[in-house]
Amino acid sequence: MLRTRVGATRGVAAGLVVVLTGALAACTSDPVDPARAGTVAVGVDLPFVSLNGATAAGRAPGSVLVRGLVQSGFTTLAADGTVEQDASFGTVEKVADDPLTVRYTIAPTARWSDGVAVTPADLLLEWAARSGQLDEVVPELDADGAPAGDLDDVVAFGATSAALAHASAVPAVDGATLTVVYDTPVADWQVALDVNLPAHVVGRLALDPAAPRFPAQEPAADVTAQAEAPAPGASGTAASDATPAPGAAPDATTTSAPEATSTPGATAAPDPAQDAERWAAAVVTAVQQQDRAALVPLSRVWRGAGRAGAVAADPTLTTTTGPYVLERVDDGGVEAVRNEAYAGERPAAFDRVRLRTDLDPLAQVAAVGADELDVAAPLSTADVLAAAVDADDVTVVTGGDAVLQLVVQEAAGGAFDPAAHASAADPAAAAAELRRAFLAGVPREQAVNDVVAPLWEGAEVSDVVAAQVGAEAPAAPQPGDADAEDADAGDAQAGDGRAPATTDAAPERVTVRVLANTADPVRAGVVDALVEAGRRAGFDVEPVEATDPAGTLRTRPEDWDVAVVPVAQEDLPVAALAARWRTGGATNVTGHADAALDATLDALVAQRDPAVVPAQVAEVSAALVASGAVLPLVRTPVVTLTAERSADEDPGLPVLDPVPALTPGAADLTWWWRWTRR
């Protein structure tokens, strides 16, 4: 990690200038708005898309960042995969092993930002959405990973979780607890279920005949007008001209809607808490009784309720559980204010957090220097880092994010497909030997020193295969390491840039097509190093020209032999690792197939003891590296800037300690926002 205090030390001449001009500056500079001290402004390149963390839009980096600020839950996932519980929200306990049984107990201090208590109804709604047990169809997904097609008249949440798919029974509700029983053990049980969208809000929008249809056929959000409406967390109540508040009395004309307790024609306002309780109860009834008439609109509302456009148009949809609550959502970013209803152990330290996404990276650097931003996390490039280091009174922190890996295509007729070695006595062994020969020549140290170290002086070769972000993620021993289990994996140290001791597997020069998003300077630099190293080792490495590298990676395996990909953390780390490398796995893009590895993965995904998981992940990682399926390279560089100030010299502006490097590859960024909490 690079930390520099730029502008803290001045020369004698600069000091004289300050002395001579200080009084004049004090008289002529614009006064700082007193409210500015309670506001922090953050600049990022990550647009907010959705509050619904169970959807592809909600898992986009900008959405993960915003949710980490405004949402609390039972657990958070640290950068290294460690699961941390928030006792002020509740507890998650494994109460039985066979069958795996997990009990959620909600703390009395867990509240939504409109003042409504969190209840098991909120968890039951999420189970209904994520288990897939109530879906009538498996929807097709569009290019953004969202359910596509006409789903208005079917039950289709379209967000089945690899963990909750194994919990087929409707969870039991008892007071403030909800108990989930799994059909088969699930290693990710600690993070498999948490509060997401509020059941009382979703229930009202879906089941109240008086509520406007949601989502509207042609949604149009007047963001400017809505920004003037009070946020749910600012006053303890939600208000909207577009839709009834959560306390609006339902006009119960169908069996799906709860009965209204207000007298017809009465003018007295209904009790918001009672109305919220009724709508949440209606959700519980719909799930428990599998009431299709209610589940169809519930699934429709759930799919769209968290999207940025919907949140901007209806302030009730900003209802969250964290120390902050969204007040404004527009094209320039989001603003969150202190959640006055929050009663947890991590309250807000500021009155307002402004998250700007409308500035390019160099403009973010300039904005920190001009006191328009207090923190910025621009894209890390040589130009950006140079500008940040040259800026006055700015602390620069660098670090590493997702792990860049070289993955090998083992199918589709390419150079490393056993089918391409049909004349060999053992085609599979010949293909594996060729894979290892190619990977043995990959210049990992060169990639670190020449490509990443100029942007992050702490960069080093990474041996992490699993979908983690942090430096403490389980690593795999490389072929040639003293403790490698498979000494036959290769005589040369993988990644030292040397050709293998024997080239019998490649008697002639072999063409290897490398796929990468070369719009990223780091990946482009890695490709350049591969081309040169491949030439020395007897391979002709050719970059693949693809307008959509990510799409080519997934859908055109015949177009590439190896790919440089960043592997980010997943919300279900173990399930994600298995899906990526299991034979026929949902995200297995390389065609890797290994019955022995499948058995190891089966044991891993069924592991009930979290303490044992890291060792099993390391075992899987070692097997993949030894087989020549993947080679980790280095973590991608990131940079974060913090304005340097003192209360005496910068009155009216927030004074912050250096903020840690923001890692957009994390599946949960609650930990990054700790500096905004007390």
TrEMBL record:
InterPro entries: SBP_5, SBP_5_dom
Residue ranges of every copy of the Solute-binding protein family domain listed in the record: 94-569
Signal peptide start-end: 1-25
Keyword presence, Signal: yes
SUPFAM superfamilies: Periplasmic binding protein-like II
Domain of life, per lineage: Bacteria
Region feature (Disordered): 216-277, 473-508
Keywords: Signal
Low complexity bias spans: 227-273, 490-501
PANTHER family: MONOACYL PHOSPHATIDYLINOSITOL TETRAMANNOSIDE-BINDING PROTEIN LPQW-RELATED, PERIPLASMIC BINDING COMPONENT OF ABC TRANSPORTER
Protein name: Peptide/nickel transport system substrate-binding protein
Native source organism of the sequence: Cellulomonas iranensis
